[in-house]
Amino acid sequence: LGNNNWGQDIGDAVISGVVPAGATVAFPDNYKGTASDAFFYAGIDSGTSDGDVYKITFVPPPGASAASDLNIGINGGLAGVDIAGLSSNGNTILSGCAGTADVYLSNDGGASWTKCTKPPTGQTGTCIIIAPDFATQHKAYAVTKGAESSFSYSGDGGVTWNQLSLIDTKITTIVDLAIPSISDIFMLTFNSEGLKHSLWRTQDSGTTWERILCSGLPGIGNLGLVKTIPQYSASSRTILLAGQKSGSPTIWKSTDNGQSFTSSVAPCDINAWAVADANTWFLGGYDGSKGLVYYTSNGGTSYTITADVGNPSLNSIVLSPNYAQDKTVAAGNNTGQVYLSEDNGAHFRVLGQQLPLSAGSGRINLAFDSRFSENRNIYATTDARVTAASKERLFRFTIGQSIGWQSIYGGLPENATLEQVLVANDGTLYAVNTQAVTAADKKGGIIRSLNPGNSAPTFEVALRGLEDTVILAHLLSVNNRLWSVDNKNTRLMTFNDSLTPAITLFSPYDKTEGLDTSGITLQWIGVNGATEYEWQISDDTGYSGLPGGFTGNTESTSARPTGLLPGMKYHWHVRVSKPFLGRWSESSSFTTVLGGNNTAPQISLPAPGAQTSLNPVFQWGMIAGATRYDLLVAEDAEFEHIVIDRTGENALETNAWQSDINLENDTVYYWKVRGRSANSSSAWSAVSTFITDAAPAPIVESTAPPIVHETVTTETVVQTIVVQPTLLIPETTAPPAQQPVNVNINIPEWVMYGGLGLLGTILITLLVLMINMIIMIRNNRPW
Question: What is the β-pairing status of strands 610-612 and 688-692?
Fold first, then answer.
């Protein structure tokens, strides 16, 4: 403090009986300097396990400050613990051991202590620092010395520690993988120099990794297998490890995504296993004379020997996709035999014949079809080396149908070995060929089939992105993203098989009718990674015997077929053809226009704008190939308010029809018609209009008495005509068109001749008067 010497402002504290080899100091975050109640912490490393953590409480000189031994190891029966690192925050104290990598923690200012459940890796010199935001984030960091030492962190206040970087280890072999989701991967590795296993975790698809377990930690022995439960999710993150501890078969279980593990004794050395859920799994073992399957439903507390499965040891155990309902289990051994149980492992039977062996060895790997409940297919591979005389190494068995295993692929090159087979959720089958990659000869890589359940499935070899001499092993998939191990370079490899989903068709829309044969363009939605597409069009759904112009390959997402006929129904589909095959899209259909291009019925009756009765007659020209005609009549040109609908099943069989529906008076109507057949239709005719007759004018009767006229003809026939007076109401609408009427009238002869005579006398008199008038004018004589 200031320039004063030691012991002048604060009394020295004396720790009796300890010879320090090293020490560390930690000040509390509310350090009070020379106040009477000020304190700090001191960690002592004696080099002989006599050190500890002390709380030093200040006393002014000449008094001695108090040194209280906090006895951090007392719960473990330790009188002293040498300390290399010390850090505090609030009431939390973290102390790192000098002689081990252990960390002790106290959350009550040193009154009580616990030892971390999973310490940092390393051997000695554990130094500690608590992050400034420890109160909210609970993070602390540690560094250690020695084999497997590292820079570690804790996210739970110092209880468990994972390694982030500067890890003193090597990855000689990638032993096993568990990949429960696209982002979460667990990788088990082995360091052949240090003879230590490490379990690594990534939560961002491999961008960053941390080590969550090491066999160098106390209580952890050899690790051989890792699995996650099928129900793995953000709320259920159970991980299982199989191996040995102190020479005994052991299973470690974590329910917090690998932060902490608990162990239980296994009934056998585990050669194969299958996990149904966090408490249910099957183990495959060998008792020296026969293979055995063990079953537990209580998380390994107890096991039942379900059945023996032949003499050799087992290589694989798999559960059906619907295990929870059908309780079906399959097992494959090391000598080409497959066993099946359909009663949860209580009984197994041999399934089919023995599969090929090589030098007495043929380790079997199995996979159920993703639609096993429907097709009952199981797939098997044997790792017997392929020879020129024997190339069948991938097989299929259909329960309830097959007598023996059927080879479904015989195209493997010589010396190929199939190590593993799996079927993705969408039904794509993959198998890894452990042969060294030679791209030119299609050796090594991944075998791939989109239709393994077909009678003649199609297979490809996926080598894209793999260097020659790469040797793949292990195979896992999540949503068609594959993960495998490059044993040659000790690398984790991934391949996103984006081409397996079926393509989505865009245009023409399904069931479109009446398309022009010369202007049809097929369009679809492109797929990432696709470099070429194959398209087909056919008049049947079998797509067989396609002529030129009905199929092709293109790098674009559209194609134009040629040679289409009018009045036909066509089906079409598309798939990716490069760099790998994709699934065919669902078929879509369309029909071409009837009668040739741009053909539509010609309207005859009613003529455009004609006036009609309320039940008009419709007539139009015929269309070649049409068997029926669709007729629509509406109150608007957009045909939103339809009053006559003779389409579909109500279509007309002839090209003329009189309406059986009474239309409204004095109303303009719009109509159109088209031809159709069983497969197609013509274009619609032009829209035409007509107007219905106006309503007749109403007649009002008069109450006036009738007027009687008597007429006598020369034929002595007397007719009496009664004329009833009427009142005419003016019309408000245009009168309907009138038809000509012929009227016959009988006139008596004396009337007719008398009238003619009178007319002649009048004409003569007028002529005489005109002549006299002209003479008088000329002679200037008055009238």
Answer: parallel
- DSSP-assigned states of every residue in 119-136: PPSSSEEEEEEE-TTHHH
Rounded (10°) CA dihedral 215, 218, 219, 220: 0
What phi and psi, each to the nearest 5 degrees, are found at residue 777?
-65, -45
Note whether 539 and 504 are within 8 A (CB): no
Q: Are 151 and 163 in contact (CB under 8 A)?
A: yes
Tell me the backbone φ, ψ of residue 528, rounded to 5 degrees.
-60, 130
How far is it, in rounded angstroms, from Cα 575 to Cα 536?
9
DSSP string, 469-491: T--EEEEEEETTEEEEEETTTTE
Q: Give the model confidence (pLDDT) of 571-593 as tens digits.
A: 999 999 999 999 999 999 998 88
Nearest by Cα to 480 from 502, 500, 460, 458: 500
Spatial distance between the Cα atoms of 683 and 592, rounded to a whole number of angstroms: 10
Kindly indicate the confidence band of residue 719, based on its pLDDT and cuts at 50, 70 and 90.
Answer: very low
Residue 642, amino acid:
I
- Structural contact between residues 674 and 688, judged by C-beta atoms closer than 8 angstroms: no
| Closest of 158, 162, 260 to residue 212, by C-alpha | 162
How do residues 137-154 score in pLDDT, each as one tens digit? 999 999 999 999 999 999
- Give the range among 93-97, 405-409, 764-768 with minimum mean pLDDT: 764-768
672, 685 contact by CB (below 8 A): yes
| Distances in whole angstroms, Cα of residue 493 to Cα of each of 57, 93, 210, 408, 470 | 58, 43, 18, 27, 11
Q: Which residue has the tokens 């191996």?
A: 243
Q: What is the DSSP letter of 648?
A: G
Q: How many Å apart are CA 403 and CA 367, to the nearest integer?
A: 19
- Mean pLDDT of the residues in the chain: 89
> Angle 337-338-344 (CA atoms, 0-180°, nearest 5)?
145
To 10 degrees, the CA torsion angle through 119, 121, 127, 129?
A: -60
Which of 353-357, 483-487, 716-720, 778-782 bottoms out in mean pLDDT, i.e. has the lowest? 716-720
Nearest Cα residue to 520 out of 537, 533, 532: 537
3-state helix, strand, coil in the chain (%, to 5): 5, 40, 55
SS3 per-residue string spanning 326-374: HCCEEEEECECCEEEECCCCCCCEECCCCCCCECCEECEEEEECCCHHH
- What's the pLDDT tens digit per position in 613-658? 999 999 998 888 888 999 999 999 999 999 999 998 999 999 999 9
Task: Look up residue 339 and give its two tokens.
Answer: 């066993």
For residue 228, give the H/E element and its range: strand 222-228
Split at pLDDT 50, 70, 90, the class of 102 is very high
